[in-house]
Amino acid sequence: xxxxxxxxxxxxxxxxxxxxxxxxxAEVEEPPALWPIPGAPSCYPGAMNFHxxxxxxxxxxxxxxxxxxxxxxxxxxLDPAIASLALLxxxxxxxVPADQVRYDDHQARQTEEPHSSGxxxxxxxxxxxLLDVVGLVREATERIAAV
Length: 147
Description:
The chain has helices at residues 60-64, 105-110, 133-145; strands spanning 7-13, 16-21, 25-29, 46-50, 53-59, 74-78, 85-89, 91-97, 102-103, 116-121, 127-131. The protein is α+β, with helices and mostly antiparallel strands. A six-stranded mixed β-sheet has the order 8-1-2-11-10-9. A five-stranded mixed β-sheet has the order 3-6-7-5-4. 28% of the residues are buried. The chain is globular and about 45 Å long. The chain has a single domain (7-145), classed as CATH 2.40.50.180.
């Protein structure tokens, strides 16, 4: 996708705003019924049926070691070409076109957020951590394989 057509999905976890490239997302939905995944790390509350495919659901706050969200309102299902994984998040705020976003290189170097590929300045000067989805999936795969 060219920079002109790129968009970011902006969501929150307790105390922090995040963004992912919308091209990495298949769908956003309400949290569905979950089935337990025996032996999975505690950050995986279960698996869901996503249009006939089984998808692992990860509590992103727990995975990143962040404070527990009192209410997880949305599930961000990743593009199946990336992983069969959905992320439970506190809230989805918006979709922002790339031409309304500024990549903050200085802030990106200072961030200590795990799986960050940088920092975005959204309209109104609001900052969001740009999540490195590929790196997150790589570590998630390693963690679940180690069990």
